[in-house]
Amino acid sequence: MPAEAKALQEAQHHLESVLLDLERQFPPTPTGVATTVAWGLPYFHHYIPTLGKASGFFKAGTRYPAYLPVDLMASKAEGHTVYALQEARTFPSDQPPPGFGPVRLEQNDVAVLLRSDSLANVKAAQKVLFGTGSNQAGSLFKVTSIRYGFSGGGFYGQQGLPSKLALAANIPGAQSIPRQAQGFLGFATTLDSNMGPGNIANLETLPGLTDQWPNGYFRQGTTMHLSHLFQDLVAWYERNFPQYADRVQAMLQPGLSPPPAPGTLALQPPGQSEAEVAQGVQRYHAYGHTGSMSQVDSTTSPTTSNYGKAYPAGTTIPVRGDFDTLDNPFHYTSDPTADHYSKKKAAGLHFISFQPTIAIFNRVRLSMDGYYPDTTLPIAPRSPHAGINSVLSTTHRQNYLVPPRRHRSFPLAELLV
Question: How far apart are CA 269 and CA 387, in angstroms?
Fold first, then answer.
């Protein structure tokens, strides 16, 4: 698409019309289709270099990136302007599979996330958004990848999707996945204590995080991190953590004495302070996955949101949206060589996290590797003693800005001339 005001504004109207038609067909509920449209830095840099029109949000002539939401906390700490949306980075434990090369830091303009309890609904929505008919939006996009995945099942004694699909695909280690598990590793990922409540992950909700309260253009939006990771089920269930207690301690924290393994492992992880994590390392020479992050991803004191909602200390801020996959690493890619595409199925995770700023995601992700602002844990970040890191292999990363619904279609295009 040309980077011209008229073309972008026509695209904006067309995409919004298609999205509204889609929502009339499928309400944004689990039985319908929930649609999230997220925009990458390349979109803003290439298509929105300068805002030609003045508005209640910006002066005419505002240039990229000055119109992006500002991360007030990070800006104060670093002494210069830091934006809520940042380029993706790698982390100490990031290690793709042998022969893959470095982690790919992607440069997509846009990502569309479709979620539903109905696979048929997802495929119908995919056709509406990426088909080439006059009432579809496919002419607006060049698809660079398609990523499929699943989570859950296993209700009322039924076999969960991770176990069922991994066994059908003959994935090594699949026979060890608990029959009713929500995810390949056997632990639920959507526990209340793991998920930010309500709109806490919005840009504007928590006072002092960004400049979007009370009237920012992107108010009621958020940031999104998207990555792909392979999961080594043989290492998880057999080689590194052969006992159920080993896996509980790696996932949560060392020293726990869990009850006998249930059919699906949905334990509430106990919170740990940074000092408690360090003490655990001294005693056990190990730390747990959720324990290492539990203070970094949460409010540190009782907080009242800009909307008047009171959150106790220890309230989780990010909202998870990830799902297991058998993609290797994607279902489809326009660049099979660079993405190391294979038709052979592989256990993996399309990891998605929503949070007010990417700086928050980076801090949480660094803590997963034992890196804190004031200290670094004396454990190699890919060691079997470093939570679950030894069974994960990251291949791709990118960060996005999710605008509010009113600006979801080609944001800022209406301010171009």
Answer: 13
Sequence letter at residue 212: Q
Beta strand pairing status for 110-115 and 34-39?
antiparallel
Quick: pLDDT tens for 142-184.
999 999 999 988 788 889 999 999 999 999 999 999 999 999 9
Helix 5-25, helix 119-130: angle, nearest 10: 150
Is residue 334 within 8 Å of 186, Cβ to Cβ? no
pLDDT digits (tens, 9 = 90+) for 220-267: 999 999 999 999 999 999 999 999 999 999 999 999 887 765 544 555
Kindly state the tokens that stand for 111.
Answer: 């990502």
Is the distance from CB of 328 to CB of 346 less than 8 angstroms?
Answer: yes
* Largest pairwise CA distance in the chain: 65
**388-to-93, 185, 187 alpha-carbon distances in Å:** 10, 10, 12
Measured distance CA(130)–CA(115) in Å, rounded? 16
Closest CA to 88 of 151, 49, 38: 38
